[in-house]
Amino acid sequence: xxxxxxxxxxxxxxxxxxxxxxxxxxxxxxxxxxxxxxxxxxxxxxxxxxxxxxxxxxxxxxxxxxxxxxxxxxxxxxxxxxxxxxxxxxxxxxxxxxxxxxxxxxxxxxxxxxxxxxxxxxxxxxxxxxxxxxxxxxxxxxxxxxxxxxxxxxxxxxxxxxxxxx
Length: 166
Prior knowledge:
Elements: H1 7-17, E1 27-32, E2 42-46, H2 57-60, H3 64-78, E3 81-83, E4 91-103, E5 108-120, E6 126-135, H4 142-156
Helix pairs in contact: 3-4
């Protein structure tokens, strides 16, 4: 089932994607539906059918799915949003990962992008989107990758849940 994004939310996504370089090499941005009231505590389930990793064996070898899920569960839990232990939840969460490589005469690099999407389970509305981007380092252990992912997600979730009263 295709889900539609409210036009104001779509414009907010486009504006925020272009924001912010970080000194730690991790760029993050967020967008949320300004008409949604986010509770201080909620539950979510992973929407595995909507989560996507690149069809690249080199990326598949990094086993990013479990790392992303573990880091997201830990960082969202710090903010009152926990993985549901039942079949129902307030939200569905999914992720998408993309990688882009540049090969040049002077340098080469690979950059990975992670998008986390929170969908209101009852309505199917997309209510929050977080985007992070950083250089890919294939030489990390899973523990190092998890720690780095938590740093990126903590930065992405710095002001989560959104407070519309500002």
